């Protein structure tokens, strides 16, 4: 969804109480748990995580899925072991209703993204 919210809390408040909100909140907890130093903002009309214009990732609830934008997925998972079975788009992972996050490589993918981001490596996000 493209939101007109001007704060992360307003963005979250505007989400419908359904599976998309649940998935988005789970991803949000993962990101903030792995990288507690990041700030949460509205960026590109979605939730953005980073510091001083260095963006780590973005989250967005779409009509049919939740998007986790990490930038260059190929750089994060060159052998494809973490993204097996996931719906990958240009710079994002699309999470459907039936996907159980803990049964995927998404937590490790976020961990790799944070490690690259902390080193100052460009994520493309």
Task: Outline the structure in words.
- The chain is an alpha+beta fold and 125 residues long.
- The protein has one domain (8-118): Aspartate Aminotransferase, domain 1, CATH 3.90.1150.200.
- The chain contains four helices and six strands.
- The protein has a six-stranded antiparallel sheet.
- Strand 3 (54-61) and strand 4 (66-69) form a beta hairpin.
- The model has no long low-confidence stretch (mean pLDDT 94).
- Residues 20-113 form the YdhG-like domain.
- InterPro entries: YdhG-like (IPR014922).
- This is YdhG-like domain-containing protein.
Q: What is the structure about, briefly put?
A:
This protein has one domain (8-118): Aspartate Aminotransferase, domain 1. Helices cover 32% and strands 24% of the residues. It contains four helices and six strands, in the order ααββββαββα.
Q: Which key phrases capture this entry?
A:
125 residues, alpha+beta, Aspartate Aminotransferase, domain 1, six-stranded antiparallel sheet, 4 helices, 6 strands, YdhG-like
């Amino acid at each position: 969804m493209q939101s007109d919210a001007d704060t992360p809390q307003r963005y979250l408040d505007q989400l419908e109480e359904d599976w998309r909100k649940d998935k988005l909140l789970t991803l949000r907890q993962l990101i903030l748990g792995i990288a507690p130093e990041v700030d949460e903002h509205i960026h590109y009309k979605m939730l953005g995580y980073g510091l001083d214009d260095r963006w780590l990732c973005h989250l967005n609830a779409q009509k049919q899925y939740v998007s986790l934008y990490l930038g260059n997925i190929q750089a994060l998972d060159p052998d494809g072991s973490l993204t097996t079975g996931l719906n990958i788009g240009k710079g994002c992972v699309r999470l459907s209703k039936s996907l159980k996050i803990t049964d995927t490589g998404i937590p490790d993918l976020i961990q790799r993204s944070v490690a690259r981001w902390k080193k100052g490596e460009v994520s493309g996000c």
